[in-house]
Amino acid sequence: MPAKPDLAAVPVSATATAVALTGVRHEYRSGGRRILALDGIDLRLAAGESLAVVGPSGCGKSTLLRMIAGFLRPSHGEIRVGGIPVTRPGPDRGVVFQQPRLFPWLSVHGNVAYGLREAGVPRRARSERVEQLLDLVGLGDVGALRPYELSGGMQQRAAIARALAPDPAILLLDEPFAALDALTRERLQEELRAIWLRTGKTLVLVTHSVDEAALLGSRIIVLSPRPGTVVLDEQSALPRVGQARDVPEFAALRSRILQAVRTPGS
Ligand SMILES: Nc1ncnc2c1ncn2[C@@H]1O[C@H](COP(=O)(O)OP(=O)(O)OP(=O)(O)O)[C@@H](O)[C@H]1O
Fold it and tell me: What CDD domains does the entry give (predicted)?
């Protein structure tokens, strides 16, 4: 049997990149209307934290994530990543969307390698890195397949591997498992948790699911209905390894999150 690559060898970012949002407010202007999506967001995220962002529909979760990604500039306030103001997307921030958005004309391997090729990483190093990442996300055997030959869960794993390829310090995930069936979703949640523990990445995860937030957040924030403001900001005391869902703290944390979602301003 061929030796499995040492997954611990997947490089962990050396820089202690953190995210800082100061006085962030965002207002959309659409058809003469102004929509205040987020207001008064002050947040400092330490490197290696996993921040779950929960809140009712339309409270500005995706807006927050898009601003950290650099797709959108805040109307007021400032966002810094690793101390540097965010003005555009960059290789220090990998993004995973609800839909995998894989390139259908490329193999799974080709999809994961794409950004590395664009960045001029030599073929051999590229290939080694892609193999490691495919193993990390459990797709070691299907690199040669095309996205349409994969299940939805496998496609989302490939999207996660693609986002991790440039070794971003921060992984931003916007409802990454919302389109998957319940069983696949649960499995991928466990896998993402393992990937986070293994790689030490800073994660920002937007989710509607209170369970998902409780399971995956080392820190959880709840936003109020629009304009989104932070109404709960809690560090999780759940064990990082083992079956986090089975410990009593899980149910307690879950119910505090749920209460904050239901009674904004509390
Ligand atoms: N491009 C846009 N132009 C105008 N308004 C927008 C735009 N994008 C979002 N909005 C509005 O801003 C508010 C926040 O949207 P956002 O998508 O950030 O919320 P969300 O919490 O992620 O919602 P959901 O949970 O339903 O995905 C909503 O009222 C939405 O209608």
Answer: ABC_NrtD_SsuB_transporters
